[in-house]
Amino acid sequence: MTPPSLLLAHGAGGAVRANFSPLIPQLSRKRKVHAVDFPGSGATPRAGGPLELDDLADRLVAAAGAEERFAVVGFSLGCAVAVRAALRYPERVTALVLTAGFVRADDETRARLQEWSRLLAAGNRTAVARYLMSTVLGEPFHRRMTAEQEAGFLDLIAATIPPGSPEQVDLVLSTDLTDELPRVHVPTLVVGTKHDRLISPSATRALADLVPGARWAELDSGHAPALEAPREWARLIEEFLG
Predict the structure, then answer these.
(1) Which residues form the AB hydrolase-1 domain (predicted)?
(2) Is 215 helix (H, G, I), strand (E, B) or coil?
């Protein structure tokens, strides 16, 4: 029997390529993989107003085309999109893998997101890139980077900040899944990122606590598992879905 296909939901300020590209070759060996960039990321036009989870969930499911059933892998904001998709399309979503997600932004996370939002509004791409490097990369991984690697990564971030980042960050700040998570009734794996300096690891653990029967796993990474631990992340996904 062919396994259900897989949908990928990226994070705020990210894109499918940025958040998942190292995993896609491995994940697509056994199943079809579909994804969509949210408004203002990749080639998707920026939204004309605030983003809504329902719309993002519908866009994600539409990316599956004629596929009747699929699992969903969400990352960061994509976890909230994945949860909403599971509730809106219960007959189609077979499983969830939620990585570096949250129930709602706690005070610590909210302060970091608000600073990110402030820097985006100021329009200094280098300042935004420096801030993201300090919060997205786990401290152990960041410490191992050479000066040349750090400079190159800083330039890459500055050059690829999605224009829709402000709306995406605003959606993170306004999201609260407290009432929705107990209504998730598909097999769910929640993956924490041990060295996360953007989304508090405790916020991800709280997500696992609210989903009935959710399994828990943890990656030795910060808020950039596709960069810091891609093989381990793909292995967790494959083992759970298998």
Answers:
(1) 4-230
(2) strand
Q: What is the pLDDT of residue 1?
A: 64
- Taking the C-alpha atoms of residue 226 and residue 209, their distance in angstroms, rounded to an integer, is 24
**Above 90 in pLDDT, residue 23?**
yes
Note whether 175 and 101 are within 8 A (CB): no
pLDDT at 242: 87
Q: What percent of the chain has pLDDT over 90?
A: 98
Q: What is the pLDDT of residues 129-156, one digit of tens each?
A: 999 999 999 999 999 999 999 999 999 9
- Residue 73's alpha-carbon distances to 101, 152, 234, 242, in angstroms, are 11, 29, 10, 14
CB 19 within 8 A of CB 11: yes
* Token pair in block for residue 139: 């401290």
Contacts of 121 (CB under 8 A, 6+ apart): 166
C-beta separation of 195 from 220 below 8 A: yes
pTM of the model: 0.96
Strands 33-35 vs 5-9: parallel, antiparallel or unpaired? parallel
- Beta bridge pairs of residue 9: 74
The CATH architecture of the domain made up of 5-107+164-241 is 3-Layer(aba) Sandwich (3.40)
- Cα separation, 35 vs 20, in Å, equals 10
* Cα–Cα distance for residue pair 112/199, rounded to 1 Å: 8
Residue 233 near residue 147 (C-beta atoms within 8 A): no
